[in-house]
Amino acid sequence: MILFHADNIVKNFSNHRALDHVTIKVPENSIYGLLGPNGAGKTTLIRIINQITAPDEGTLTYLNRPMTREDIFTIGYLPEERGLYKKMKVGEQALYLAQLKGLSRHDALKQLKHWFEKFGIGSWWNKKVEELSKGMQQKVQFIVTVIHEPKLMIFDEPFTGFDPINTQQLKKEILSLREKGATIIFSTHDMGSVEELCDHITLINESRTLLEGPIGEVRERYSENEYELRFDGDVNLLTATLNSRFQILEHKKENKDSVVRIRMTNNGSPNDALHALLEAGKIISFNKITPRMNDIFIKVVSEYREKNNKTVTAEAENNK
Amino acid sequence: MSKTGLIIRREYLTRVRKKSFIILTLLTPVFMAAMFVIPVLVMTSKGQETKRIAVVEQQGHFFKGKIHSTKYLKFDYLENVRLDSLKKHFDELGYYAILYISPKVGYIPSAVQLISHKQPSIEVVTYISETLKKEIERQKLLAYNIKDLDKILKSVETDIRLKTIIINAAGEEKETSTGIAMALAYISGLLIYMLTFMFGAMVMRGVIEEKTNRIVEVLISSVKPFQLMMGKIIGIALVGLTQFVLWIALTLVLVTATTGVVMHKSKGNSPIQVPASLFSDKADQTLQTPNPANTKVLGQEELSQAERMLNALKAVNWGLIIGAFILFFLGGYLLYASLFAAVGAAVDNETDTQQFMLPITIPLILALFIAMGTFQNPESQLAFWGSLIPFTSPVVMMARLPFGVPAWQLIVSIVLLFITFIGTAWVAAKIYRTGILMYGKKPTWKEMWKWIRFRNY
Questions:
Q1: Which of A12, A217, B115, B192 is deepest in the core (most CB within 10 A)?
Q2: A54 and B10: CB-CB below 8 Å?
């Protein structure tokens, strides 16, 4: 089931178009990655989902009906630029923000206690926010975002400012939130975490969608049918046998292992390559190379820019 | 609790708990009480020391026995002394000063000197010159050889104290005091001006804080911008009211307590009535009653003057003044606070506020100027319009009110004020909801106009 559907969203600011017919469909109980370079329009889209601003065109559907203002209370939102009242005490502030989300004082206290214990920050309750480090403040903010057990959670760059240990803990929490039934949209530049967490992705660049779909499919789509063969044996013998049917991209020695990267051509199959490998020496590993999200990101965005530049120069020449 | 209620609660509690709030709330009444009590203390302690003044005439004995001693000033008429030696020794002899009178004093005003080591007080100077003037006038009249002159002079001696009585439509008469009306008008007008500025700026700083903290985005995903803005404005209004009520209560307690102590102490040894000396400028009254035989009579008169003051104070419609003060403070504050909130939302930091503050400060300062003019002429056209136009009405109307304002004007003014507040809140909300999420460039007036006209948010 699709929990949230933003259809053909257009948003104009006074001198530029921030979103140009962007569509995203977020399946229930999934983690949806919103990718894109800085200034692509991700934050604008997130603000539209949060009803902070309204789109100029397009519709928002939530739980199979048009989204209303009241729906934001079932959303937990962790903005990219986040802050807390510096002079207020941590506990008091968390309680205030939780109550603003619609929790009763009693429930808010109970939930907060649970989360503070889970994150091992119970002793911070009476500290002022300004006494905490940035990472510590982020933890408090994360708790406040999820405290009211929202159906939909939106994290804008949740990992910035965290050390690796806290990042790991946060990833674990995000995964367990999904297990408990939550749907999560998160935007990030950290492609590693996208691969680790996301079920679906959308890549936005210069206010347009460039790429969309389940992450496995996307990576498959950009895979170049490449394999990495790692073995203990004679590289030259192998390349000689493979050469007719495969394109050898690279071969090298790593310690005493030989590593060969090949690309399938029409008349070869992975099995043929494995056959050849059997004869060449002791097999250590045989892997299909799935492209990293990082590479896909760079490739898609730079291709788009190149194309755009060409149109721009072409237009400029036409104008001459 | 509703969301707005939660916001009001937070805004109120965080401010009321601040050390600066507690200190200001406690210290201000101390200052205000001091303003009332110190003059009393000064006056009651003045009787402690009697100053002796040597009177020396260059020639003749025109003033012998003519300058009467008072409770605090004792005049010794010295004959056959040389000024030079007296000048050297007068303080050893126990004199505070020498009054040296030349016979030319009748036609040269400056032919009289008061010689002392310290600068004599204005009261001493006034008393001596008044007495000399009267005596010289008397002696000049004497030169006309009028029969029974002293009797005549006595019989023509008059004292005028203008009683002002306000009569209302029902024919009830009330004795009033212009002095009290002035003081009230001045204090309440100025207070409204100061409080509006103080708490308005507090709203602005609160908005800027939320914006620079970036907490505003978290808040805005839970509550509407309008709720956030109004919550802040109302919360701070309550802070203002709390402070105001505490100030009045604490000042009253302090004044009653200290004057009680002072009055108890001064009972029996001082003719000065504390309430009278509080509000009258007749502190030097005893100095003007040179004849000891007269003191008793004048003392009684003074008492009745004090009673008159008290009556005039009682005659002030305190319910109306305080009620109107709270309404006009609230109305004026709400109106300006919403504008302050809009300014806070439009900028990133306090230094950028200057440009947008100008249109807010100008009407407020203008209001204060009109209020000052009101003291001279409470019925002027300027005062009338100033007290109706919402941007100046809180200050000007409070300045006019103690002089008496028709009920319809009061009602129209309040209604206009609150209607305008709804208008400014509406405009401010539009600037606010766009402004709080804008960072970076300081907006221009044109951009802000665009924000106001945006239908969509």
A1: B192
A2: no
Q: Which residues pair with A252 in a beta bridge?
A: A259
Query: What is the Cα–Cα distance from A42 to A50, expressed in whole angstroms?
Result: 12
CATH number of B51-156: 3.40.190.10
pLDDT digit string, tens, across residues B292-333: 444 444 444 444 555 666 666 667 777 888 889 989 999 999
* CA within 13 Å, CB half, A102: 15
CA–CA separation, B259 vs B272, rounded Å? 13
Give the angle B299-B130-B289 at the CA atoms, nearest 5°.
15
Pairing of strands A257-264, A281-289: unpaired
SS3 of residue B279 by DSSP: helix
Read off the pTM.
Answer: 0.72
| DSSP β-bridge partners for residue A33 | A186, A201
| Chain A residues in contact with B213 (beta carbon < 8 A) | 83-86
Question: How far is the first Cα of chain A from the last one, in angstroms, to the nearest whole number?
Answer: 53
**Do B221 and A72 lie within an 8 Å CB cutoff?**
yes
Place of tokens 């000063």: B97
Which one of A92, A100, A143 makes the best mutation probe of the B interface by having the most chain B beta carbons within 10 Å? Answer: A100
What distances in angstroms separate CA B329 from CA B226, B284, B336, one per listed residue?
A: 22, 38, 10
A33, A215 Cβ separation under 8 angstroms:
yes
Query: What ranges in B58-173 are assigned the alpha helix state H?
Result: 83-89, 122-142, 149-156
As a dihedral over the C-alpha atoms of residue B319, residue B321, residue B326, residue B331, rounded to 10 degrees, the angle is 130
Please name which of B229, B181, B194, B186 lies closest in space to residue B329, comparing C-alpha atoms: B194
Phi, psi of A51 (to 5 degrees): 65, 25
Residues of chain A with a CB closer than 8 angstroms to some CB in chain B:
14, 47, 50-54, 56, 69, 72-73, 75, 77, 79, 81-88, 96-97, 99-102, 141, 144-145
Quick check: B401 and B208 in contact, CB under 8 A?
no
Of B213, B439, B450, the CB nearest to A86: B213
Contacts of B210 in chain A (CB under 8 A): 85
Nearest beta carbon to residue B6 from set A81, A99, A141: A99
- Domains, chain A, in order of start with CATH, read 2-220 (3.40.50.300), 224-289 (3.30.70.1710)
**Neighbouring C-beta atoms of residue B151, cutoff 10 Å:** 9
Which of B221, B223, B439 lies at the smallest CB-CB distance from A77?
B221
**Distance (Å, whole) CA B330 – CA B241:** 9
Distance from CA of B398 to the nearest CA of A (A): 37
Kind and range of the H or E element at B200?
helix B178-213
Q: How far is B169 from chain A (nearest CA, A)?
A: 54
Retrieve residue A296's tokens.
């896909």
User: Which candidate from A97, A99, A102 shows the least CB-CB separation from B218?
Assistant: A97
Judged by CB atoms closer than 8 Å, whether chains meet at A77 and B213 is answered as no
Q: CA of A76 to nearest chain B CA: how many angstroms apart?
A: 8
Under 8 Å CB-to-CB from B305, ≥6 apart: which residues? Answer: B161, B276, B280, B282
The ipTM assigned to this model is 0.75
> pLDDT by residue for chain A (320 residues), tens digit each?
889 999 999 998 877 888 999 999 999 999 999 998 888 889 889 988 988 788 889 999 998 999 887 888 888 999 887 788 888 899 999 999 999 888 899 999 999 999 999 888 888 899 998 898 888 888 898 999 999 889 999 998 888 878 888 899 999 999 999 999 999 999 988 888 888 899 999 999 888 998 889 988 888 888 888 888 888 887 777 777 777 778 888 888 888 888 888 888 776 788 888 888 887 788 888 888 888 888 888 888 888 888 888 776 776 666 65
- Nearest CB among B209, B439, B457 relative to A53 is that of B457
In chain B, CATH 3.40.190.10 covers: 51-156
